[in-house]
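Before the break, one more example. Copy the sequence into your notebook; we will annotate it together after we see the structure.
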Amino acid sequence: MSDAADNAFERMPRAIDERAVLLERLRLLDADDGEAQAAQGEPAVLFRLGAEEHYAVAYRHAVEIVQRTAVAPVPCTPPHIAGVMNLRGELVSVLDLKQMLSAVPAEYDATAPILVVALGEVTVGLRIDEVLGQLLIDAAGLEPPLPSEGVRNLGWVAGVHGGTVTVLDVAALLSGGDLVVDERVG
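Here is what the structure looks like once it is written out:
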């Protein structure tokens, strides 16, 4: 053992009461840290669609951000399904959020990232324009989404953060019937 490790070991409490006090302090400090994090909000990925529309997805659903990957279109699918991509040997469906939300014209830069999200066994990619960073979202402080002609399903929107960021409800987005394609080619 090093001198520092020997010195630290010598300073450890030997009596049961001293150890119990230290363990209780550690438990309280850990609980305070968890409460502080919950009070600040849930971390989310902040991204941009179009020139200025900002959206967010909770980190608990975010798997990864894929840069510069080919998306192969799939015949006989609705316009909101951009296609599929190869993610380390697994085919993952890619959704075109601009089509789903009718946010802006559905054009993307060839280098646009894809935000991979998951809910249970379902994993999909969300085509976005740019990752802007992270954001802490207070679910209790979200404003309700405003009715919009373009958004086919307001259930996909959890709320609006700070009046400028639309927070997507990934559970509603991935559990809806809009992802099921049952068109037959004659």
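The two ends are 76 Å apart (CA to CA). Helices lie at 3-11, 16-40, 97-101, 170-175. Try to locate both features in your own notes.
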